[in-house]
Design a protein that fits this description.
The protein is of the alpha/beta class. The protein is 35% helix and 17% strand. It starts with 5 loop residues before the first helix and ends with a helix. The structure holds pyridoxal-5'-phosphate. The site of pyridoxal-5'-phosphate has 10 residues, from helix 2.
C-alpha cells in the first residue's frame, strides 16, 4: 500500500478532521503527524524557536519528563528554569502566582501531566505574550482543551491516541514561520506543514489506528466532555480506594495536583510489594509496577481503561488492604 495513495490520504485527512472537531482547533493552527516520539520534540522545539536568538527559553521543571527537556534546549541557547520541583521530590506543581515569566522569553515550555509522578496541572499557565508550548503526551484527548491559549502542543500517540510511532503536533502558523532558515529538513516544522505530514514515509499503521481512536471518541464516546466525565469518575473511584485505606496506601502526589491519568502510590509497609504484585497478577491485573525513578505502584487510567477495569482494580485494592491489616 502506498503512503501516497488516495486511500491513505483519506485516512490522514479523517484523522486531522476528527482531531480538529474534538479539540475545536482554529484554522490558524496546523495539525501534524510526526515521528521521533515526544523526546524528539524536546530537541526540535529549541532548534526552531531558540537557535540563533539572544533570548532565554523558559521551562517549568515539575517531574521526570519535564526535566528531560531543558538540557536539549541548552544545546541551542540560554535556558531558564522558572520553577523547579526536584527538591520536593516532584509531589507538587506551581501555582499561577509563582510563575512570573520574563516578557522577552523565547517561549514557555511545560508538561501538563507528569506521567511518572502522577501530577496534572489543573489550570493553563498564563504566559502573557510569550509563546506557550506544552507536552500533553499523557493527557491530550482526555478532556476538552482551549487550544487558542497555546502556540504549540505535542503528544506522542501511545497513551490516549493510539499505538507508538506517531507524534501529534498542533502548531500555530505564526510560530512555525518564525523559525530560522537552514534547519535540517526533517527538523523544520515548515517541511511537514508543506508536505501535509508525508514528506517521507509516515508510520501508516499507527496513523490508521489513531484515526480509528479519534472516530471512536467522536462517534461512540460522544466527544471530550463525555470522555472527561468518564475519566473523572475513574480517578475518583481509584483515589477514594486509596484514601479510605490510608493505613496501607500512600498516594505520591499532593491532593491538589493529582492526575486523572496516572496514579502513583506506595505501600506503607515495604515488605508487601512482592505479594501485592503477585496477587494482582493472579487477579489478571498487570503492569502496576511504578516507574524506576520513584518505585512503588502506578496505575494509569488512560481513555482505553474502562470504568469496569477501574472497579476491578479498586476491588483488589480493598481486598489487599483488608488482608494486610
Ligand atoms: C509526558 C511525557 N513526555 C515525553 C515522554 C517521552 O516520550 P517518547 O518515548 O515518545 O519519546 C513521555 C514518555 O512516556 C512522557 O510521558
Amino acid at each position: 500500500m502506498s503512503h501516497r495513495s488516495d486511500w491513505f490520504r483519506s485516512v490522514l485527512d479523517e484523522a486531522e478532521s476528527n482531531i480538529r472537531k474534538l479539540l475545536k482547533i482554529p484554522d490558524a493552527y496546523h495539525v501534524l503527524f510526526l515521528q521521533g516520539g515526544s523526546s524528539l520534540q524536546f530537541s526540535m522545539i529549541p532548534m526552531n524557536f531558540l537557535r540563533g536568538r539572544k533570548l532565554e527559553a523558559t521551562y517549568l521543571k515539575t517531574g521526570y519528563w519535564s526535566a528531560k527537556a531543558p538540557p536539549e534546549a541548552g544545546f541551542e541557547g540560554a535556558v531558564k528554569i522558572l520553577w523547579d520541583g526536584a527538591e520536593g521530590g516532584y509531589r507538587n506543581l506551581p501555582e499561577q502566582y509563582e510563575l512570573q515569566i520574563a516578557p522577552d522569553s523565547a517561549y514557555l515550555h511545560y508538561v501538563s501531566n507528569e506521567t511518572v509522578e502522577g501530577l496534572e496541572f489543573q489550570y493553563i499557565p498564563e504566559s502573557k505574550n510569550v509563546p506557550l508550548i506544552c507536552d500533553m503526551s499523557s493527557n491530550l484527548l482526555s478532556q476538552p482543551l482551549d487550544v487558542e491559549k497555546f502556540d504549540l502542543i505535542y503528544a506522542h500517540a501511545q497513551k490516549n491516541l493510539g499505538p507508538a510511532g506517531v507524534t501529534l503536533v498542533i502548531i500555530k502558523d505564526e510560530l512555525a514561520q518564525s523559525a530560522p532558515e537552514k534547519l535540517p529538513t526533517l527538523m523544520d516544522y515548515r517541511t511537514h506543514i508543506k508536505a501535509k505530514s508525508i514528506y517521507n514515509t509516515p508510520p501508516v499503521f499507527s496513523i490508521y489506528t489513531l484515526m480509528l481512536v479519534t472516530r471512536w471518541l467522536l462517534h461512540e464516546v460522544g466527544g471530550l466532555e463525555k470522555m472527561h466525565e468518564i475519566n473523572i469518575r475513574k480517578a475518583q473511584n481509584l483515589y477514594e480506594a486509596l484514601d479510605s485505606n490510608s493505613g496501607v496506601y500512600q498516594p505520591y502526589a499532593s491532593p491538589a495536583c493529582r492526575s486523572k491519568m496516572n496514579c502513583a502510590f506506595h505501600l506503607k509497609d515495604e515488605q508487601f510489594y512482592e505479594v501485592f504484585f503477585a496477587e494482582a497478577r493472579d487477579h489478571n491485573i498487570m503492569g502496576l509496577e511504578g516507574h524506576r525513578s520513584i518505585g512503588g505502584i502506578r496505575a494509569s487510567l488512560y481513555n482505553a481503561v474502562t470504568e469496569n477495569d477501574v472497579d476491578c482494580l479498586t476491588a483488589y485494592l480493598q481486598y489487599f488492604a483488608q488482608k494486610s491489616h
